[in-house]
Amino acid sequence: MDIASLMRQAQELKKNFEQTQTELEQLTVTGAAGGGMVTADVNGLGQIKRVKLDATAVNPNDVEMLEDLIVVAVADAQSKATTESKLRGGKLGESLNLPFKLPF
């Protein structure tokens, strides 16, 4: 493999990486807790976009439970986003004919 070929492949990888990042930023993944009483939407990068609460989840006498449900819903959504990111990231180098394995 010559240097010019390697450089072309690196440029292609960079382009594919940037496209994947854009797709992940636009992707919405939803996590839930409490049987759907609390949902959280995050993008494919795990950034929180929205938290939605069912009115029945709001009990002024048990704020701690609501806090826990929010944490669980956000963690669920972020876990799904991480899985999606790894899945898409793993496909980045598949089309390249590199003499080594990429670390992702």
List the helices and strands and how they pair.
Layout lengths: L2 H24 L1 E6 L4 E6 L4 E6 L9 H28 L14
Antiparallel strand pairs: 1-2, 2-3
Structure in a nutshell:
The protein has 2 helices and 3 strands. The chain has helices at residues 3-26, 63-90; strands at 28-33, 38-43, 48-53.
Q: How would you describe the overall organization of this protein?
A:
- By secondary structure, the chain is an alpha+beta fold.
- The protein contains two helices and three strands, in the order αβββα.
- Strands 1-2-3 form a three-stranded antiparallel beta sheet.
- The protein starts with a helix and ends in a 14-residue tail after the last helix.
- The mean pLDDT is 88.
Record the strand order, biggest sheet. 1-2-3
Low-pLDDT runs of 5+ residues are none
Shape annotation: rod-shaped
Biggest beta sheet attributes: 3 strands, antiparallel
Order of helices and strands: HEEEH
Q: Beta-strand level of the residues, as a percent range?
A: 15-25%
Number of DSSP strand runs: 3
